[in-house]
Amino acid sequence: MHHLSGHPNVISIKGAYEDAVAVHLVMEFCVGGELFDRIIQRGHYTERKAAELTRTIVGVVEACHSLGVMHRDLKPENFLFVSEEEDSLLKTIDFGLSVFFKPGEKFTDVVGSPYYVAPEVLKKCYGPEADVWSAGVILYILLSGVPPFWAESEQGIFEEVLHGDLDFSSDPWPTISDSAKDLVKKMLVRDPKRRLSAHEVLCHPWIQIDGVAPDRPLDSAVLSRLKQFSAMNKLKKMALRMIDTDNSGQITFEELKAGLKRESEIYDLMQAADVDNSGTIDYGEFIAAMLHLNKIEREDHLFAAFSYFDKDGSGYITPDELQQACEEFGIEDARLEEMIQEVDQDNDGRIDYNEFVAMMQKGNAGGFVKKALGNSISIRFRESPRN
């Protein structure tokens, strides 16, 4: 971030302080909310606005790449508005997975978030082109309200990323301009050698200032889908974060053991998943192993997460309890009513256990997968003696 200091669309560091326990970074304060939330709030949304937002996002990518920096975790949650003003700057945050790269250098560690990860990342041989793919996924969502590759599980999402076809036939794509679809296709080319560079994206006629992107409103269904996507992600993010008891941003052996209850099982899981014996289970290895052994869907694991929200043990998550959880996690822009509506199948204004499990396992009944993990996860663990 030091190398990108001064860029108008990159979060700035105000100071760094160290105590006996940790290094504390003081960052620029952004009060304007997340990218998707701003779009939902405004209610009026056009292709031209989507082009403007994409121009900002890809502009940051180009700046990063010109300095030999690869972000590696581009997703909507990592773009915040500085203020609530209409002309507020959009800032890129969370450079925790960023790395320096040299021309031609390839990386093998699997990082990122399921919907946005590039196919070559899953194949463990990638370079900065992966950032353009992630930006292309964001563009697809900006135009349609849903991710281009989705399934009922993370492993299914990865399979779609590797082999699935782009859908340009379902609504609202027939009403989207050909130029926009052309850019999406060129950003989501699976062969990174044939994919547009960030600079080439910025030269595309659809994305340029006063370019060909039409100024007519997009289908209202796009805003509705973005609303669903954003609300579900916030609730699921809190459910997953409650396992991280020390708020480190990483799930340790002890935390995962506490979440899954049986140490011998999780020890076997970690030993099997750490294929390169590095002492680190990366995100892809973790998800693959968890899905294979069905640990993420364990009844006791889900019940523990549900119980965290159900403060009074009533068997229901109420708006007040959800508000309390949001405050504990520092989520100030949560739309509680929307979050509950997306999960509350019987419309009683609260979430019961079965509704919670349905959300965590499959998403909602609307057909759109909502299993986006809010944060990239890297799990570091220490070897523990088996019982």
Automatic annotation (TrEMBL):
Where does the source fall among the domains of life?
Answer: Eukaryota
Q: Which reaction does it catalyse?
A: L-threonyl-[protein] + ATP = O-phospho-L-threonyl-[protein] + ADP + H(+); L-seryl-[protein] + ATP = O-phospho-L-seryl-[protein] + ADP + H(+)
Give the EC number(s) under which this enzyme is classified. Answer: 2.7.11.1
Q: Does the keyword Magnesium apply?
A: no
Q: Does the keyword Transferase apply?
A: yes
Q: Which residues form the Protein kinase domain?
A: 1-207
| Entry coiled-coil feature ranges | none
Where does the EF-hand domain lie?
261-296, 297-332, 333-366
- Which keywords does this Swiss-Prot/TrEMBL entry list? ATP-binding, Calcium, Kinase, Nucleotide-binding, Phosphoprotein, Repeat, Serine/threonine-protein kinase, Transferase
Per the UniProt record, one Pfam family is Pkinase
Catalytic EC class: transferase
Q: Which GO terms describe its molecular function?
A: ATP binding; calcium ion binding; protein serine/threonine kinase activity
What family does this belong to?
Belongs to the protein kinase superfamily. CAMK Ser/Thr protein kinase family. CaMK subfamily.
Q: What name is this protein filed under?
A: non-specific serine/threonine protein kinase
State the organism named in the record.
Punica granatum (Pomegranate)
